[in-house]
Amino acid sequence: MFLRPAASCAALLAFAIPAAAHAQESEDSPSGRPQIDFANSVLGGDFVTVGVGGALSPSYSGSDDYTPNVLPVIIGSIGGVDINPSAGGVQIDFIPDGEGDVSFDFGLAARVRGDRNGRIEDEIAEQYGELDTAIEVGPHASVSFDGVLIPVDSISVGTAVLFDVAGAHDGFTVNPTVSYSTPLSLGIFANLTFGAEWADENFQDYYLRSDPLAFTGPAQDALPAFEPDSGGFRSVSSTLLLGFDLDGNALNGGLGVIVIAGYSRLLGDAAETPFTSLRGSRDQFLGGIGLTYTFGL
Q1: Is the Cβ–Cβ distance between 172 and 164 less than 8 Å?
Q2: Residue 214 neighbours by CB distance under 10 Å
Q3: 5-296: which CATH architecture?
């Protein structure tokens, strides 16, 4: 499953700023690892990144029509609590980062899922009506390993379990990810993330079921009836993000640009529903760009 475009751009900044800062090496370090004095940098204490991102993405999950998205972005670290964007929402981490090579994050994740709630470009799918907006909340956890291939890179493995609390699909999803992050210089950063989404039966039935009786157009244009078998994996994805600090130094904050390119492959019932197989595509793409500004508090 893709991150929502603007959130994806901000997610890069959440990793890019601190990691890029560590790219400034010190040969005097006894451990051979880069050492940075953050005391006089934007990242030395509490900081916030705000911005806006724009992208092209499918009009709904499974659509082959693409629509533009413009979303606000906010990330930061305040009093040891990290605020990071996630797929369509936000993650709040309550465990402060340590100084070792292994770190843990645990907290809450929340997202808004507006699939087939507006922005429906397909004239047949549109005549099945709009779905309710889901608000999904749940725990997330991850573990990160620093210095995997070079002293300043990292690999993070994590997952989030999100439950609908708004009464839309009344189900839940499990969202595992594996992410590799590395600075290319003090002002350029790269992140490659592989992810998947598993959904329960309630979720699958709400978004994938095709009922000819719900079609409001001419009967001959209705999609075939379709009933999902059960819960299961609905997508796998890969996303590449690049971040650029505009003055070449992420330590002093300021303006940055982020670009994103991604591919997602729908699986199982998510690919077989006629909303995808007849009116869309199981292959999903996105591309976008964001502008951010980072400052200390």
Answers
A1: yes
A2: 12
A3: Beta Barrel (2.40)
